[in-house]
Structure prediction request, 365 residues.
Amino acid sequence: MLPLHDLLHQQIPAVPVTKLLAVINLVVFAAMLAGGAGLWHSSNSVQLAWGANFGPATQDGEWWRLGSAMFLHFGVVHLALNLCALWDVGQLVERMYGHVRFACIYFASGLAGNLLSLVAHRGLAISGGASGAIFGICGALLVFMWRERGNLHPRDFRWFFWGAAGFAAVSLVLGLLITGIDNAAHIGGFAAGILGAMIFARPAEAGGRGSSRRLRRTRLLAGGAFALAIIILVTQIPVRTYRWSEEVLTRQEIGEFLRDDAAITRTWQNILDEGKQGGVSFDELAGRIDIAVGDRYEESFEQLSHLPPDPALPSAATVEMLRQYAERRRDASRALAEGLRANKPEQIRDALEMARQSRQLTPEP
Prediction:
């Protein structure tokens, strides 16, 4: 009797789906590095920009993140571990089930795992990686080995079945002990892989251990269980805490405000320097301050005031701080202009002091 690996290789020599999945993961990681991601660790902002699974974003109409997150990795170690597991297990499972069935099991497991992650973490975790899908094909391997145990050499059964079972068990235990590992995605993917293996089992795999009627019944039960599980998960999706699109808009406006503020501050200082040098009337200085400083801070204040008024947004506190800052800078500039026109040194000093104190309100860019 040929070893299982050689027998499977004879039946299906090539594993194009496994190779393609590995290449896609590598290409995405390389693109992320080129886009500013870190080799050893990527920040959450980078992961979100590339499509990580995150409740406020995924639930804000970006459900494609359940799929895109399968190809994102948080560093080269994360990527290497997943690719090694994908290469070792993927080749076997692709030959066990065929190319199309293997792809179906892989993606169904990854999507189900990310959905469970979304529910289990109440939408608060930023997650990504191929491990949910890999756990799924590991579960599919266990199903195949158990179904075909009577047709396999005992050595092959022990090596592949208990090896895969041990890998899954150790990985899940480590997920409980080490923070940062998305065990929910692993569990969801593993369960989906087991059910998917039952659904996509080949008729020939049943051999003499059951009739085609029994195989159809098993498929129906597994399919019903999978559909029921997805329905339950969908009903348990938490209420989103805020809209990610509103948070993105708010962050963009904050960035624009900080850039504008730096430019306005330089203009203000240039006007004051010209005033110290003489040759410019107080009325002219006051007019330039009104137009180049006061009006621009008024415009910034209005723009910040029209942002989504959701206090749950992470940037809501920053927006309120900047609104107060813009308001005080506007008032200080107008008080300064009035003091210059009225030639009141005390009012000019008070306005400059108000402007100086207002700088303490703005966060660093």
